[in-house]
Every structure is written in structure tokens, then in C-alpha cells.
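Hi team,

Filling in the usual template for the complex we talked about on Friday. All components are listed, including any nucleic acid strands or ligand strings, so the model treats them as one assembly.

SUBMITTER: L.P.
PURPOSE: interface mapping
COMPONENTS: two
RESIDUES: 1122
SEQUENCES:
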Amino acid sequence: MSTGGNEERKNPPPETKHSLWLRRAVIASFWAVVAFLGLPVWWKTTAIYRADLPLQDMTAWANGQVCKPIFPIHIAVQAPLLPHDAHHLIHATQQTLNDLSDFPAHQLRLVFAEPPQPANASQQVVADGSGTAELDDTVALAVRLIPVETGATPRSQLQPFLATLDIYYSPSQIPSESSTNSPLATYIAQELHQLYAQERVRLSGLYSNAASQSESLSPELAVQLQRDSARAFKYAPTYHLTFSLFTPTSTPSAWDIEAALRQYMNPILESFSGISNFTIDTQVQLYANFSPSIRQPEYDNDAKAWTIFKEDVGGFINAAEWPLSPSIGRGPTINFALYVPDEAQSPLFVQGSRDNSWLVPQWGGLMILNPQSYQATLTKEALVPAMQVFSTQLSSLLGLPQTPASLPLRISTLIRIHATSLLFSASSTLGALAQVYQKMPTIPVPDPVAKSVDLSLAHLHRACELLRDGRFQDALENARTADGEAEKAFFERSMVGQVYFPDEHKVAVYLPLLGPVAVPLVMAALKEIKSGIAAVKGR
Amino acid sequence: MLSFLSFLLFHALIACAYASPDYHERLLLRPLPQDALLASFNFRSNETAAAYEQQNFRLFPRSLGQILQHAHTKELHLRFSVGRWDAENWGQRPWYGAREGSNGVELWAWIEASSEDEAFARWLALVNNLSGLFCASLNFIDATKTIRPVISFDPEGDHAGTSNLHLLHGILPHEVVCTENLTPFLKLLPCKGKAGISSLLDGHKLFDAAFQTMAIDVRPVCETPGQNCVVEMEQTVDMVLDIARSKRPRDNPIPRPRPIEEIECDTSKSYNAPDTCYPLDKKTEPGWKLTEVFGKPLRGACPLTAAEGPESETLCINAPPERTIEVNTTGHYTKSLSASDTLRCYKLPTGAELDLVLPEQRMTTGLIRGQPHLYAARSINGHGQERGSVQAVIKNPSPTDAVEFAYLESLPWFMKPYLHTLRAHVSTSSEDPLKETYYRPAVDRVRGTHLELRLVIPPASTLILTYDFEKAILRYTEYPPDANRGFDAPPAVIRILGPFQSADRKGLYLRTTPLLLSLPTPDFSMPYNVIILTSTVMALGFGNIFNLLVRRFVGADEVPAAGGLKGLIQGRIQRVKGRFGKA
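RESULT (copied from the run log):
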């Protein structure tokens, strides 16, 4: 290729060893600065702080490998029997119960309790709860065996406001020593099994998270349970209740809500006080019109009433104009809206029914109240139907099961359900956090996150142990803390910032400086390596 | 003078009737010179302190009440204002300036807290929540815009039972007040703009006004100290409408000249001809109707107001007795006259519309306007991007009384005053009018300047207050969008301390206009240019030094034959040359 110049080309004199090594030393020192000063400084200054998280524990919790919650429900049996007979009866009943059980985590455990007053206690209805007072606080239900002479036996009665099941039997039904199968034991076992049927279904639903229903469950019941759980609010330590009076005119402009709430709402809130706290606020809103998207009420001649269309019920609340903003503070707001129609459009009903209250899932309840007389103030008496509706709606919005009939039993069921769901939700939050940590190496993880995770794990362990001991209330407290801490860790603000900072951006910033600097450095190094190799080969 | 008295009396009348837990509203209309009309809306609702604490809200809005309780705010004053009160023409301000705000949004509140830090944290919670409620950028009131005034504000409410109250004050002069602020304002009213005088409030007219201010004031009021307390919320809207402008129909808003036949011409002018006309000032009051001026009908009374007594008369007009006023309604209304017949009040019918019709009329008498206690104007002087000076001119029109007042400036941190250049000068006296100075200097990016002065101005004289300031250079990211427009500096708040006293605890105030401060604005593509330029320079320097150190220097004739890319290209060129040479 080379054509050669007109002048003669001379070769440069051979390089001295000294200058050759000097050049190599210069290049090497530049590279040393880059490698030992530049890179570490760059690494240090652009590094993202990531606190250590116990990833394995977190994933194990999320996969359910650490804790399989079990629900030992202690049931005290009080029987006016000799200890020997009683033990035999309990043993037989327990045997039957174990055979009936289709959900192994849910264990009904019978224990014998000394009857409080052996003599003529049977006829005395214990109204003040003294019958269960001396029992251990882990006891969820007391079964009282009461011998009677008359009436069909065995029969049972559940106390609506006590965690007590009364079983009436005739003394002849006490199983003898020899018999293994006794009708009374079977009866008690079946009663108890039935009592906890709904709880078992809901707990097992939480367990598998799929709709794996046990065979004993009818499809209607399954649908009902599904609907109930879709309605209910997610558990929160605090709920804000807002009671609002809406009217399209200016009457009524006041209501005796304070007294009505005190009488009708406070008792139910008190029974829930072990689960959550509640704040209450009320408001009166006049001139509250329907939103323009729904049709105005029409007069129905047959029913002699004004009706609104069934399909408009969903748009009844004029969210744009009615001030139903959530309350300030942590926790969700449950809204209860009482709508008093215009006097000219009263009575107002939903088309096709005389039912004028409905529940908006995970939002609250609504009722149309057609007062007897239109006065400036709605009296407490006029508010009674509304309060009854609202308290029913409140219990279903809080996820209270509809059976059994005893309120303390239902509340203790709710405690177990909440404790379990919080346990699972905290675990899955921790699992998700572990995944985020592993999958996104660019997000910073500050120390408070690690602290929250540790706290959450500790409380999860504690909650799991407490569940095993049957101390459900304490388990709920711990599960609540665990869930709160897990959420706090997952939603830590400073973790969000860097996620969307793309690598292209970095290239655009680095290239103008690093490109021109890197080219001579790399070229010089390559050239030197090449000549070095050539020299080695040529030798 | 009588009519002036009536104006004073009227406001006193509204002020003293707040003991019972109820709802009151009143609209005062007052024609102003140059075909302007002052409409002063006042709504006041009470809630007993017990119900308020228990969050049983009836007349008090729940949304606001919860915010105030959450932030432990005991007294709140919030203002949204647009425009300027033309004191030279319009006279005394409505409510003596006590329900007026500086242009944009102004907020001050008394917050209960055990320490200053806690008070500030609660203040931030308050502004953030109010920001959501009123659709305003109140959340931009941060530490740099918050001051703690010393003498300019006193609580209006009774705070006997609470200790550790902290007063915090913030102004957003740049905020554009518009319809989205009026809608939540109306929602706080029990009758919600659907009945009562609030049915006249309409965003199109309100924000088209020459001057408008919306105020919300919450304060506890007690009959006796600590007993029978109510939490009172007062909502006020004052607007000055140009009658001719607001009478234009909404579908045809372009002003058109009147037909020449309707115009009275000045025939003394030399150029007067059938087609040229110098219009004479009409000596008549313009005719107007409520529906025309407000664009909406007045939909009867709000049923929550008192059924009888002076409180039931919710529509009042302050005009000379000879002014004809016709009432158009199908419902039953009553009318009463007071203050030498210059104040006509109407009790509105419930459920029926009412309209006031004032025909065009040639007047022989007029109302005497109340004279302001002080006139104030403020401006920025100087030139250049580095320094400037502020000059405030305050005039005392009274021939007999020396006026003592507090002057409050809350300046942004990037406007740094030199306090040693502060001069207060009165032409008529050699005495120093500056009695007291409270000054808290700015800290860059942390807090703004707080300057509060107590001054006395002798009768019939003018006080000139000047100081120099330096403009800071902002960081690149600190410039707002449209940085070349300039930055707004909040108005000065002037509170009259004496000898005039207000009848209630509201105080006498006036505010200057805000200032537009132009700061040196950079070219915003600069950072990219800087990155590229410095990188190039550094790469150049590095390359030279590196090559000098690494390259081997040989004689020009000792250069090895070009290899690589260069050799390849040279070879090609030679070959092409050779081929052409042959041909």
C-alpha cells in the first residue's frame, strides 16, 4: 500500500529503556489513579444506602413457613356432676368433636370447670355475668349443663349477651362408665361444632385464600360469606364514624343526634372497644340535592308514595356536592347518611320495596327517613329507626359474623378473624418488601425500614405464640402492631424517590466529561500493551 | 354627616348581636361614586363550644371544624383578595379594613401548642389541610413565608381558658384567587348559595369585580369569661362592582358605544357636529337591578335566619332617601328605615324570588363617604438588578388628630433590606415619627424578613418611609415558572392603634398593594451549556498534558509510516490520484 515519499524516511533511534519504562509508569499511574481513587470515590458518592433486611425470615413468613396459626378454643364445661362422671362426659364429647372436625387448626378444647353454685343454680338465670367471672380469661365459651325434669331433652339455649351455652338434659342421659357412645355427648359436640361453623369457614378461607369450602357448607352460605367479607372494611385500629343528616330543603335543620347516639350507638361501640377505637362526628347539611345524573323521584299511584329507581340507588349520594370528605387522622371513615326527603316528596321509597335503607360496601350506610311530621328538629324518638338500621349496618361493615346469636361469641370470632388476617397481611407485606428489595437494587433502604421490619417480625412471633395459647385479644394487639410496622416499612417515603431515575440519564451526564478523557487513556494503554506484546514476541 | 354616621352605626349593629347560637346573614349594598356598587355580604354561624368539641356540627361546617381541631387552632383568619380598594374615591373601607386581606391569600391563626416548634408543626398541618379544602396553594406557606407578628394583630375571640397561644401569619401574594376558591367557600354556608343572600354570589361576577375580598374568621366568643362559649364563624365577601360592566349580558360581554342619540353632547366644543360629540358627564345615578348586576336572582330568605326582629332583615341598601327603590317579588316582604332613612332594610320572603329595581335617577343629594383614617401607597424605586429601595407614603388626612399605627412588612428572604437605611420622615415636624422597631432578619432559604414598626404621624401630614434592599441571586431550581414576570412581595399591613378605636375587637386596618420585584433571571439552558463547556475544557487540558507525558517525540523525518485508518485513507487517495494521472 505505501507508496513511499520522495524523501528518504529515517527510523527513529531506538528508545532508551529509561524513557520506555517512564512512559509505562506514567500510563500505569494514570490508570492507578482512575482505579484506586476515581472508581472508589465514584462508587462511594453514588452508592445508595441499603440497610440489611432479614430477607430469609421475611420470605419465610410470607410463604407461611414460620407460623401456622392454630386456634385452640377453650370451652369450660360446668356440670353439676361428680368429677368422675363429668370427666367421662367431657372425654366422650371431645372424642366426638375431634371426629367431626374438618379444619385441624381450629380446635375446640373442653375443660372441666367447677360449677359456681352447685345447688339450685339451674333455675337461676345469671344476668350479670358472674357465672363466668372466675373462669380463666382464655375461656371463650362456657357450657352449662343443667339437669331438668320437664321438656324435651337434650336441648340448648345460647345466651344472647353472654358467652354461655346452656344445655338442658335429663339426668338419665349421663353416659355410663362403660358406654362409648352417648347421645348427650354427641348432642353437645354437634351443638358446639355448629356454633363455630361460620368461624371455621372464614378462618379456613383466610388460610387458603382460595374458595376452598368445606363440604358442610352450602353454596348459599358460601356466597353470603363472600359478600359479607366484600362489604366489610379492612381492619383498622381506629374508625371514624360520620353521621350526616341530608335534606333537600331547610327542614329539618337540627337533630337530637347526641342523645340518640348515646342511647343506641354507644352500647355497640363499647362492645367493639376491644377491637378498635371509634371517633364520632355528626353534621347537618341542608339543600342537599341529587346529582343531575339520577332521575328525580316519581309518584307511584299504587303505592301512594314517591319512588326512586332501583338503578339510581348507586348514584344516590351526590359525591360532588355533599361534603362527605374523610375525617382527618389515621383510619378509615365510615359514613352514615340519613336522608330526609322534601316534604312535598314524602314518603319516599326505593322502587319496588318498602325498604329504604341500604349499605354501600366499604363506605357506609344510607337511609331515607320519612318523618311523621316535619319540624325544625328531628327528635330522638324519630331517629330510633335510623339508629337501629345504622347499628346493624355498622356491625356488618365491621365484618361481624351473623351467627351465632350470642354477641360476645361473635365478637370473639371477629377478634380471631382480624388477628389472623392481620397476621397474614403483615406477612405478605413483609414478603413483598423482601421482593422489592431483591428486585430493585437501585432503591435506597434507610435504617428505619430495617427497624420496622425487625419490630414487625418480633410482634408476628409473639402474635403467633399468643394464638397458640388461646389469648386472642393479646394476639390481635400484637398482630396489629406487626401489620402497622410492616406497612410503615413498605411505604417508607424515601424508598420511592430513586426508582424512576433511569440509567440513560446517568450516561448523558457522564459522557461529555468521561468520553474525551477516557479515549486518550484507553488508546495509550492499548498502544503500550500492543508494543509490549510485540517486544515480547520479537525477543 | 348624618349618612356617614349611618354607615358607622350599621356595622356596629352587626357587630354587637353575637351572643345566641344561631345563624345570621346580611347583605349591605352601597352605591359608590363613578357608578360603582359596594356589596358587602356577611354570614355568621355559631356552634356551642361543647358541641364543637364533641364534633356535633350543625351550622359550623364539619370539614373546617375538623381541620381546626386537628391543628389545635383556636382562632383563624383567612383572606382571599383580588384588586385594590380605591380609598381616594370610595372612602372608608368596609369593616374598617378588618375583614380585608392582602392581594392573594393571607392567613393568620392562633394555635395552641406547648412550644414554638410544635406550634409550627401544627401550623403546617393547618395550611396543608386548608389548602385541600379551599383548592388554594396554601401549602406553599412554609417557614420562609411565616412570621410571628408582635403588635399588628390581637386575638378577636375570648381565649380565657387557653394558654400557650402562638400567633402565626403567612401571605401568598402570587396566588390567583378564582372560582375554585368560591365554591368551597359557599359550601361552608348552611344555605349553600341555594337560598338567602348567598344565592347572589356567582364566580363570574365576583372575580370580575374591581375589588373583592373573601374572609373566613373563626373565633371563640364567651358571654362571661370561660362560660357559655360559642365558636363563631364569620364569612364575609366584599366586592365593588362596576355597574355598567356587570350589567353586560354574559353572552354578549363586549362593550359597545351607546347610540349617539342617547348621548348628551357638549355643544360648546368647536368640533361639535351631528357626527362628532364630546360626551358630557351624566349627572344621573345609573339604573340597575339586582338580577342584572349579580347575574342571578335572589332566591328568598335562608330559613335559618331569625324570623323577626332586625336580624331577619337580611338585605340592606344604604342610599339617600330620595333614591327610588322598587321591590319586585311575589312573596311577602317587609321594609324598615333607619339612620335618617338612609338605610333601607328588607326582610326577604321565604321561597320566593326578590329583586330590587333602581331606575336611572337624577340626584340632588348624595351620601357623605366616611373618610379613611390613613392613606397608604408603597412602591419600589431604583434601577438595576442588584439593589432597590422601597418607599411607603402614608398620609394622615385628619386636620386635628395625630395617628399612631403599626406597620408590618413580611418580605421574602431574597429581598434583603438594609435596616440602617430605614428612614421615616415627616415634612411638617422634625420629631422622629418612629417610636418602636421590631426586626427579625431573614436567613437565606430558611425564613423571611419580619419588620414591624410603630409610628406616629402628626395631623395633616405625610410620612415617607424608605429603606434600601439588596436582591439575592436565586439557585437555578428556585425560580418559579415564568420567572421573568418577577416576584411578588407581600403588601404591608397597617394597623391603626390610636386615637381611633374600633367598636369591637376587630381593629382598624389598611393594606398597601403588593410589589412586583424583578430579580436577575438566568438563561435556563445554562446548566447544560456549563456541563458541556467545562467538560470540553477539562478534556482538552487533560488530553494535552497526557499526550505530552506519554507521546514519544521524534524528528519530522523519523515519523513512522502512517498506519491504521489514516494510512488506509491516504493510500486510497494516492490510488485515485494515480488512476486519474494515467487517464
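MY TAKE: The CA atoms of residues 232 and 397 of chain A lie 4 Å apart. The longest helix of chain A spans residues 503-538.

Thanks, L.
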